[in-house]
Every structure is written in structure tokens, then in C-alpha cells.
Amino acid sequence: MLKTITAFLVTLILASSAWAIDGAQLLKQVDRNLNPESYEMYRKLINVEPDGSKKEYTLFSVKKGQDKIAALFLAPASEKGRSTLRLGDNMWLYIPNVGKPIRITSLQSVVGGVFNNADILSLDYSAEYNVEKLDESGKEHLLYLKAKTREVAYDRLRMWIDKSKILPTKIECLTEANMLIKTLYFKDMKDFGGGLTRPSVIETDSPLYKGYKSIMIFARIKKKDFKDEIFTLTFMPNMESLRK
Amino acid sequence: MNRALIAVMLIFIAVFPARAEETYTFDPSEIEKKPYHFGGYIEARPVFFWADTNAALYKLKYYNQDVGQTLQEYNFKLQLEGSYEKDMVRLYFKTNTDYKNSYLGNDEQSTFYEAYGTFKPSESLKADAGKRNFKWGKGYAWNPVAFIDRPKDPEDPEVGVEGYTALSADYVKSFAGPLKTVSITPVLFPVTKEINKSFGNRDYLNLAGKIYFLLYDTDIDLIFLTGGSKTTRYGADFSRNATANWEVHGEFACFPGYQRTFIDRSGKSYTDEYNAVSYLIGTRYLTSRETTFIFEYYRNGTGFTKNEMRDYFGYIDDGYRAYLNTGNDAALQRAATLSEKNYGRINPMRDYLYLRIVQKEPFDILYFTPAITTILNLNDGSFNLSPEIVYTRITNLELRLKAGIIVGSPGSEYGEKANDYRLEIRAGYYF
Fold first, then answer.
1. Residue B391 burial (CB < 10 Å; 0-12/13-18/19+)?
2. Residues 121-150 of chain A whose Cβ lies under 8 A from any Cβ of chain B
3. How many domains does chain A have?
4. Which chain A residues are within 8 Å of B123, Cβ to Cβ?
5. Bridge partner residues of B44 (DSSP)
6. What is the predicted pLDDT for the residue at B426?
7. Whole-model pTM?
8. Structure confidence at residue A47 as a pLDDT band (50, 70, 90)
9. What's A195's domain CATH number?
10. Which residues, at least 6 apart from B76, have a Cβ–Cβ distance to it below 8 Å?
11. Does B396 contact A77 at a Cβ distance shorter than 8 Å?
12. DSSP B349
């Protein structure tokens, strides 16, 4: 009887660790299929109100490695020249009129609407989350993710992954108490060149903003390496010079 | 029949989402980079004042006019900005034109807020020459370490101000480990009768500098100014996120041999010299309901005491009585000059508290942001209270309705302001 219980427990532990390893590798694969580790990117954010009216923002973003990302607002005119920088858990916002970077938090939103700063300055999922569980019983992989630190905007994620493309189709963002904050829907596959084919549209809705939705459209994603000095407060006012 | 019904339903299900699905476009021309940029901002800002006719500053401003209890002021602003970038060089300008129509007549002032050239040979190094803002310091309402900036208005700290002409450089280096960034900013800052003439003593070439560290996730700046236009001064500031939704910051400035001129009630002038210390400690906190609290305490070591300020207001009252009795406004003229130099600066006393509470999009109304701000003078207990609402639903248009309630006893800073209440509507459009 003892042998049976021991064998069962060993099997369970091995199986659990196998899940964890597979899940972590799967998450890393999702990250690489979404973006190169270092890149430059153009995006448009659209906030849609229940009456259908829209507000649009255009952003240029650069990312390097696991923890460095910066974004520059190109439009509309009221936001042009604003830039945001994230170094790990540190985030800053530079507003030309204010003239200096100020610290912001991941839960704030510099654009209003359903997207917050963590969505706009998102790092690799595997950099911020551990895999708690992988469920393969359905048509898609379902990853249960838990934030590595309390600094991360959403404590838990549920990520549905297309089994053939290894790309997310839907992500639910939840609080520690499993309350749903928002859902991201990944749509419209597009070939961005350089071997990168991924969804070009992310739609977001939230039970906290009933009737409102936000959309992120990706226009150009290109693998590119940058010097570390670009991801500094001193460089924030000069981000436009990176655009060619 | 059933098959036909199912078929109709399937067609309906197939077609309806297709109709509901909206396609979004992203035209490549929207992200095409041009070497030049031109834009601007236009603003209309009518302000209504309810005057405090017994206040010293009302008497000082309107002693020879009958302007009544309520006053209107119509302000218009036009800012134009442009840039041109080629290779390692960028040229930038920003103009500002203010037009004011009030009881005092029409007034129009135009100037370049900024006009400078940048030479950037690498991502680590750049040099700027011309008129620009530096905006040193981490405080939201006040910046005691902003040694080479014009003071901002704590009641509207995000409004742009005019810069100074200087030659500066930035060198930045990143590292792995607890020290992530070091940045060095030396500034050469001339003051002559043509350049930066309002800054301080003329015909000096001043040197200022800032060293920035990002150390253990904390922003730290060490700052100094020396050269003769003002007494040598040095300071430091810091800012860090204590948690994901809680930021703390502070500034410390030391002014060795600071000289201060003040008057007693009879108008006799005194000068004292001492080592002044100013500092600020502040925090910004975001709740789960998206309410932001910004709180700061400011110690202004160069400011006036309660009695010194009371003497100044008393001097104005006496001067006003003399004017009514004799028609001689010499004392009031002198008080006005002292106001421009010293007493009239923003928050001229020693100890202040600042609290701003901003509620983002309450009741799920997007782009609607109400806020309330108060500045409390701890030395005399006077304060102002400013509720406001901002609406930014229409792209590039910002609408703000702001009120001001000014409370204080006679002889106090806010009690002697020219108004008891104010109401301001601001409509600004970016293009």
C-alpha cells in the first residue's frame, strides 16, 4: 500500500514538473512568436465608446531584452511628443509641456480607455509570469499564469493558445481574487516579414467599462537592436530621432 | 420546415457577426517620418473674479481705479512649435503669444519660449545651444532645486513656461546591476543685459550641473549652480516607487550666504544674510478606484515669516490711507516695486502643504476627470481650494472648468489676495 502511494506521489510530482517545464517553454515560444526579443514597432490604439465614437493614438515603440521598453506618441496632436519608458518595474512618462519625466504606475493609463500602461509597455509574458498550470484538454492550450511579483499589473492571466501556431487567441486578465479585469482577443493574422506572422489586432473589453472597447493595431514590427542608453530618462525627449 | 428554419438561422448567425465586425485600418502614411514638424496650441480662457475690496493686494492693484466687485478677464494664447531634423542635428522652436483683455486694458506679449539647436553624435551624447527649459527637480507643485528655471505656478504646474538661453550637454551611460544609469549634464549660463537679464546679476558666465543616477530603482539627482549672477547653491532630489501604486519624492536645496531684503510696517528696509535651506517631501498614491492623491510639504528657507509678511501688507494699507488722504501714491508705488522683486513671488512665505486629489473617469465616463486641489500656508493658516473638471472626449480639444475659493484672515497671504473667488473656463485645441 505504501509503495502504491509513494509511486502515485512520485508520478504526480514528475507529472507536475513536466507540466511546469512544458508550460514555461510554451510561454517562451508564445513570446517569441509574438515579437522578437528586441524590436521596433508601430501601433495604433483606438478607444471605442458605446455610441461608436472613437479616439485614436499612434505609437512608435522600441524594446530591448527582457525588461526595457519605450514608446513615443506620434498622434494625435495633443499627445505628440509624449514618451513612456519602462525599465523592469520602473515606469516614467515624459510630457513635453511638463518638460521632465515623472514616475507613473503600471495600473494608470496614459491614454484613457481600457488599455493601461502595462498593456502599452508590455514586456515578455515569460518575464513577468510563472506558469501555474497547463490544460490541454480543449481545442487550444490553456495556460494559467501567476505574476512573479506584486508589481505586475494583473496578478493572474488565463491564456488560450492556438495549438498549431503557438500564438494566443484570448487572454483573460484577473486579480489575485480571480476577478476578471479585462479580456484581450487576438485577431487578423498578418505576415510582418522576417519570419514573423502573428495577430495584427488585439481587441480588449472589460466588465469594468461596460460597452467600451479598445483596439490595438500593429502596422510594423521589425527586429532591431538598440543601445542600453536609449532606455534612460535622459533619452526620453529624443525618442523621435530613432525613427528613420 | 425545420431544415429551412435551421438554414435561415445559420445564415443569420453567419451574416450578423460579419456585419457587426468592424475593420480597422492603419495607413502607412500615418507613420512616415518627415524631417520637419509644425504644430501648435490655441486657447481661450475667460476668468471671472469676485474681488476682496478690503484686501491689501486689491488696494495695491486698483487704488486709482473703480473696478467694482466683480471683474472679468479674457485671455487668449497661441503657441506655435516646429522642428527640423537632419542627420545628427535638430532645430526646434516654440513661440508663445498671450493676449489679455481686462479692466486694465489690452495687453499682448509674444516671445520664444524655446529656440535651440541640438547636436547628437551618438545615443550617449548630445549638446544643446539656445533657449530652453531644464525643469530640474522631482516636486509636482514646487521645485526648490530648479536653479535655472523660471518658477512654475503651483496652481497650474503643468503649464509651459519660458526657458533661458544656455549651452548644455548630456552624457548618459547605462550599466548592469543596482546602478543602472548615470547621466551628466553641464550647463553654461550667461547673464548679460541682452541674455537672461531677469535671472540675476549681469555680466557673469554661470556654471550649473546635474548628475543623475538610477540606483536601486531610485532616481537621484545632484545639482549645483555657481558663477556670480546668484549666490552659489547646491541641492539633491530623489524619486522612487515604494510599491506599484505609491511613489515618494523629495528635494533639498542649500543657499549659503543667501541675502534677503524686507521692510517693516513703516517701510524701513532691512537686509539679512544667512544660510538658507529649502526642501520638499512628497508622495503620489493611486488607489484601486483610480483616485490619485498628490501630497507635498514645502519648506521655503528663502521665504518671509508671518510677521514680515504682515508688515508688508500693513505698509500697503497705510500707503492706501495716505493716498486717500493726500493723493500721494509714493508708498504704493514702492510697494508695487517690492512686489515685483520679492513679495509678489509665488508662495513667498516659509511652510506650505499641497494636496491634489484626481478621480479618473468616475461613473465609467471616459475622458472625464474631476479634481480638487488645495494649497495651505502653514504659517498663517490661509489657503486656496480649487475644484475642477476636465473633459477630453474630442480629439485634440481639452475643456476645463475650474473654480478658486480663497480663504484667509486679514494679514495672511491668501486673506490679502485681490479676490475671494474665481471661476475659469479653459478651452484648448492642439493642432
1. middle
2. 150
3. 1
4. 226-227, 229-230, 235
5. B76, B427
6. 98
7. 0.88
8. confident
9. 2.50.20.10
10. B42, B43, B44, B45, B98, B99, B100
11. yes
12. B
Give A166→chain B minimum CA distance, Å. Answer: 24
Helix axes B306-326, B330-338, angle to 10 degrees: 150
Q: Which of B33, B174, B431 sits opposite A232 (nearest CB)?
A: B174
Q: Is A90 on the interface with B (CB under 8 A)?
A: yes
pLDDT digits (tens, 9 = 90+) for A103-139: 987 767 777 667 778 788 888 999 999 999 999 888 8
In chain B, what's the furthest Cα-to-Cα distance? 106
Cβ-Cβ pairs closer than 8 A, A with B, add up to 151
Q: What is the pLDDT of residues B69-115, one digit of tens each?
A: 899 999 999 999 999 999 999 999 999 999 999 988 899 999 999 99
8 A C-beta contact, residue B349 and residue B380:
yes
ipTM: 0.85
Q: Chain B partners of A235 at a C-beta cutoff of 8 Å? A: 123, 172
First to last CA, chain A: 70
A201 CA: distance to closest CA in chain B (Å): 9
CA pair distance A136, A108, nearest whole angstrom: 34
Length of chain A: 244
pLDDT band at B16 (very low <50, low <70, confident <90, very high): very low
Structural domain containing residue A41: 2-242
Contacts with B409 (C-beta within 8 Å, 6 or more apart), sequence order: B380, B381, B382, B415
Please provide the size of chain B in residues: 431
Task: Mark yes or no for CB contact B214/A76 under 8 Å.
Answer: no
Report the distance separating Cα B135 and Cα B149, nearest Å: 6
Q: Which residues contact B389 (CB under 8 A, 6 or more apart)?
A: B368, B369, B370, B371, B400, B401
pLDDT surpassing 60 at residue B6: no
d(C-alpha B117, C-alpha A97), whole Å:
18
At B60 the three-state DSSP class reads helix
Chain B nearest-CA residue for A107: B245
Count helices and strands in chain A by DSSP H and E runs: 3, 13
Residue A131 near residue A23, CB atoms below 8 Å: yes
Residue A87: list chain B partners with CB under 8 A. Answer: 180, 214
CA dihedral B132, B135, B136, B138 (to 10 degrees): -160
Confidence class for position B60, pLDDT limits 50, 70, 90: very high
Q: How far is CA A208 from CA A114, A152, A180, B362, B426, in A?
A: 9, 19, 9, 11, 30
CA quadruple B149, B154, B155, B159: dihedral sign: positive
Question: B313 is written with which cell numbers?
Answer: 501688507
Interface touch B85/A49, C-beta < 8 Å = no
- Measured between beta carbons, the chain A residues lying within 8 angstroms of B216 are none
Q: Which long-range contacts (CB under 8 A, 24 or more apart) does B268-277 make?
A: B276/B301, B276/B302, B277/B252, B277/B253, B277/B301
- Counting other chains too, the contacts that B13-20 makes at CB distance below 8 Å and 24 or more residues apart are none
Specify whether the CB–CB gap between B357 and B334 falls below 8 A: no
At A1 the pLDDT is: 52
Query: What's the CA gap between B175 and B422, in Å, rounded?
Result: 51
Q: How would you classify the pairing of strands A68-75 and A83-87?
A: antiparallel
